[in-house]
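Researcher: Last one for today. Full complex below.
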Amino acid sequence: MDNFGLFYQFHFYLFGVIAIVAAVTFVTRKSPVAAAMWLVVVMFCLAAEYVMLDAQFIAAVQVLVYAGAIMVIFIFVIMLLNLGEASDITDVRGIWGKLLAGFVGLVLIAELGLLTRTGIPSGKYVVGRDYLGQQLARYGAVGAVAKPLYQDYALAFELTSVILLVAISGAVILGRKEFTRAR
Amino acid sequence: MLAESLGLSAILFVIGVIGVLTRRNAIIIFLCVELMFNAVNLTFVALSRYYGMGGQVFVLFVMTVAAAEAAVGLAIIISIFRHKQTVDLRNINVMKG
Amino acid sequence: MAVSGVHPLAATIAAWMWLLPVFPLLGFIINGAFSIISHAHIGPADPDMGHGGHDDASGAASHAAGDHEDSHVVGKPRFASIVTVLGPGVIFLSFLLAVGMFFAMRGVDMSTPFVQQYWSWMPVGDLKLDFAFQLDQLSMVMVLIVTGVSTLIHIFSIGYMGDDEGYARFFSYLNLFVFFMLLLVLANNYALLYVGWEGVSLCSYLLVGFWFKDKINADAGKKAFLVNRIGDVGLLTGIFLLFANLGSLDFTTLAASTGSLQVGGALVTTICLFLFFGCTGKSAQLPLYVWLPDAMAGPTPVSALIHAATMVTAGVYLVVRSSFLFSMAPIASITVAVVGAITALFAATIAIKQWDIKKVLAYSTVSQLGYMFIGVGVGAYSAGIFHLATHAFFKGLLFLGAGSVIYTMHAAYHHSGNHADAQDMRNMGGLRKAMPVTWIMMWIATLAISGVPPFAGFFSKDSILNAAFEHSNDSILSGATWLGISGHTVLLGVYVLGLAAALLTAVYMTRLMLYTFHGPSRTTETEQKAMSEAPWTMTGPIVVLGVLSLVGGWLNLPAIAAFIGPSGGLDKWLNPVVGSATIAMTNGTAVEASRGTELGLIGIAVVIAIGGIVIALLALKPATLVTKDQSPGEHGFEKVLAEKYYVDEIYEDGIVHPAFMTAKNVLWRGLDVGIIDNLFVNGSAAVARGFAWVGAQIQTGSTGVYAWGIALGAIVVLSVFSFR
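Model: Here's the assembly. Have a good evening.
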């Protein structure tokens, strides 16, 4: 809004462009490892964006969890299955598939634009100006996120731990070598 | 900043969608899905300026779920690879009605 | 149908009137149980079982097939002694109760009927049907006839069916029949009457097809039931019309509400014609009489009970019960009389050329029923009931006598090993020496049916024909036009047809007596030695009926014969029930013919009756007869008569066969299999399969296609939101 000076705006656009270019490159790589690396670039750019949007904790978590853990899992699996080389599998056959996908993308962008055409949000749920800044000043960067997490959304927090438990068990079971070995 | 953030998020999301529709390698499709997640996270964070801290909290949840999903999904891809020795999507077509 | 106040009969024995049908029902249940138990124990070597007696045309066939040796042991079926007491016993109990009720009725003012409601049967919307009995003079007469004659016939059956293996079953069916017949005559409303109507049809089927192991008998039973069913459609339609227009089905309520109907209007006429169509089925008039001659395939007691005394008279009873309707519809009444007259003559012409003794009596029954319908058609309702009663006496007697003759012939044939037809008159002759009592009794019945005074039939037939003649001059019928002809002429024609039929009646009955009992015997010496009078269980009822045929006419003596005894007994008795209808029929005044006219009519009737007998005695020469096997075939018009005008064949080719072909090809193949099965059932399955096929194409199993689907779906959902 208004406390975004030129510095911020310039860097916002810079990281935005880098993110888009990196994303396009990511989508067009033939090698899965190369694609994963370019995705990491996108994530770093997004982390920078988060910082500029006053979500410093999220930015840190983004780097730690997304780029540092999830992408690492991906690299692990790619290496495990030895899929790292540039594969010569051609993608969607012919030009028409790609054009159609591009058309679908354009339609989606148009619709998203239409959906957000109302502009600046207003109404009952909108918080006051500089609400974020106040929260950050009062509780600090981590506290501002932790306070609602453990107070208002405690139940959801617990449920996500259940999700993680289920995911761990699922991954272990699915990852076993032989299913037919009798136990 | 809101309009630019939302625009960037939309563009990244659409790039992810195009990737899903276009690519044939299962792992790369998965990575495109992760890209879509990131785009959505950007939207949440951008709007948290107007709607309170709930946006950022939700981003945490999204990341958690994305991690869980990545774990399970990759486990599935591993087991498919063990059976079919390929991650080509054309060959993974047994989910027929 | 509330009866205001308590009917005076409620304090008498008549309050037990519900027991009347309950006794036979109990008999049915217990005898039926015995028949099931005893059947379960029948084995091929069961020494208790005798041979199945059977007296139908196929008896010769089964004899020839050698299904039992001729020197068989005739044993009694199981439980026979209990059934012998129980079967006729329950009917006798009902008869005693009926007599008690009769005497109670005589001592009480019976201007309104005594109605006992037992439970509310079908309260549905506007229709309130109750299971209720109505006791008035008419139903009392019918109950007495039914229970009395039934008792005699049950006793007769003890001897006749004595060695039949279906002994208990026979009595259970007979008891069930009496139960339904009593329901019919005691019913308080048309619906309950219809229950009895259908019930007696059922029992007719069961009893006519009693020896169902022969296909002919089973077919006869089916024919009886189905032809009756056709008539029942008419009856049901009449009942529906009654309810739709008058809102009730009780007799008393309907009689009171006929003011809303227009006299002689289309509605009343239609209702009466439909009701009468039902009567043509049940009482074997044209065109639905064809079942009755075939029904002679049943045992002779069945023919005596059902097809002489009770079931076939249900149609006459229905018309008299509906007299309040028929007296308002002159065209319908004339139709009834005309159909009755034509049937009377038609059946009489067939009877003079039949050789089977039971067939002669069957056509005679059809003819006499025609007389009853003449009576109720011209409005002489009590005369019709009078003839119903006397006909029960002498026709029952004739059938029982024929049964005795057949029984004796069968015994003789078993003695000699002959396999000829025991029912054909050409195989009989000169039986009066062997069966004197039966011979005399059957002559009494012949004189009665021919209308010779002072026997019963004379008075009843005479009152009907006189009424036809008198009403041709002075009734609402004489003024009406029927199919363009004036009622006066039609009724005169009815009278003439009645006289002609009377002549023929005398002829064929005398012919029957001549060929059976007189003349040289066409049986062999060995057979004649084995012939004797039937046992007393069979001869006893015959004698009782003979006495009734003798004196039964005194029930309703005409005024002119008042020197014999009290006159008009039945007329006065039935007056509260049919009196208003009878008066309405004769323009509100009682018809009093002049003494001269009445003497003249009586004279004509007597001359015709005696003349017929004399003609038969002179023209027929029993000495020229030979046995059936040696008899030459018929030729010319005689053949047409003997083949009963080929009516059955005409019905078969003209109606039954096309109906069957239509049912098979159009309705079954076309409609049922083609449209319902193929188009609807299989078709809807095919449509569902088609839809499923379309849906199944979406599930290709290829993940890429699924991803496209998700993307497109997302676009669609977003469009809905973005263009709102």
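Chain A touches chain B through 91 residues (CB under 8 Å). The mean pLDDT of chain A is 86.
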